[in-house]
Write a structure and sequence with these properties.
By secondary structure, this protein is of the alpha+beta class. The protein has helices spanning 2-21, 53-56, and strands at 61-67, 70-77, 82-88, 90-97, 99-105, 111-115, 120-123, 126-132, 138-145.
Amino acid sequence: MEQKLKMTVLLGFFLGSMSLTCKEQPKKDVDAGSESSVTEANSMPAYDPNMDPIKVEAAFSKVLADTLNVKLYEVTLNPGDSVGMHTHPDYMLYVLQGGTLKVYPKGGSPQVLELQTGIGFISPAVTHSGKNIGTTTVKLLAADIYRARK
């Protein structure tokens, strides 16, 4: 019961914070010749069901909710577990149980992340793979936000 209450509080906090951060910014008039006329849609990769984190990470993921364009799931990676290349839309990550991951961004250099229990962050869309290179099991609460782009 206590875990269910914690998850409900986390979900409520997350949805509340996302409603504040995901509101559209007022549109500005942009000169047609201006370089700043690149749209936000250009930074968002097209949705590919074969790259969906839940599909790629199926052996490590448990879906908790999939509603209102938010997919909430828990990822559990034991030492040595690897996940293949997958794409997140905008997403939130909360560390339920910390550890060491090596993340391989598509087209970028690998990064070692020392994740502390209790930290969280919000990130724009990304394509990456990863591996638990530590000695402890890592548990993450992830929420992918599927919102319309213009």
